[in-house]
Structure prediction request, 387 residues.
Amino acid sequence: MLGIEGGVTGAFAVVGFILVQAVALYVAYGLLESVAKTIRSKQVD
Amino acid sequence: MEILGLTLPLLVLFVSFGFMVGVLFGFFGMGGSFLITPTLLILDYPASVAIGSGLAFYFGTSVIAVIKHYDVGQVDYKLGAVLFVVLSIGIELGSRLVFGLEALGIAELVTGIAYIVLLAGIGLLFLRRAYNLTDDDDDEADEDADDDIPPIGQKIQSYNVPPMISLTSGGRASLWTISGAGGGVGLISGLIGVGGGFIRMPAIHYLIGTPLTAAVGTSLFAGLFSGAFGTFTYGMSGSVDLAVVSMLLIGSALGAKIGSAATTMVEENDVIVYFGMMMLFASAGIALSELADWIGMGGLEMLSVLLLVGSSFFVALMILYQVAQTVSTDGSPTQTAPEGGD
Prediction:
């Protein structure tokens, strides 16, 4: 199991880690989507 | 070979499972995350890690969904903040009720029955909605069916006991109604140990009177803090498996994109039927699991897992199949639904 040791600091670290990962994934997949759309529109043209 | 403490098959399983859950979440705006905890339990994770990781995953998906809804301005922050407070009180009361029932030795039975009744009820509601949609062919009638508030909802919305709160959507709602709806939903969430989006969103729409699109965003906003609070609580005891949560999130963020885009391509009526049936199968699965515990039959336990996880995979695959079919037939570019498929 990959975890962070407990305690208040550990709990903040867990929440922060998930928050950052979620935002990073949102941005990354958003970029991926826009790249895919650009490629597709170029193909249509 | 192990990556982040997970074997390769487990890693693939979590990413693909997260993807399927994400497709469901993106399409319906709810449903799916309640599968994580039972699945981790089946994979022999300790109960505290299964619940803690399930809540952390729910928190992560809520973050992504709220950012998306923030982009299109569909969150009532004031209502969300009030709901967070009453939801937290409800969750606390629900968890105390569980401890009380545990002392009486009937906690598992009561929570199991609550889960079965809730999922079956929601499943039947969806099937009824699909039946109504079939009756009304034209689009106008479809919209009417969406906004059809049942008489009990209309009666509750009509109570104007002060203090009243102005909603971003333009209406007003009594703080007592909000507290009753939020507290009730929180109680159920605390009792059965789930995020509760599948009951919170309908409660905000039908009882408080928030329009459907804003109800989804506000429900997610309130749920975000509940998820963060739950993650923090379990994080305090080191009961969140970050590798599991990360893999699930990687899959679900992609799945949610596709599920959300699918709302513009897939015939809604078909998928409502699948979703209703999925809920009924999940309810039957939990009923079988309870029965297996009661009469001590291991075979029934496996069947319950098949019903619970298999039916969800089936619905997600049906959505993906219809997307693939539409894309190959039309060749039309994919467009993301502005409301996130809710």
Remarks:
- Residues 2-330 of chain B form one domain.
- Chain B has a mean pLDDT of 76.
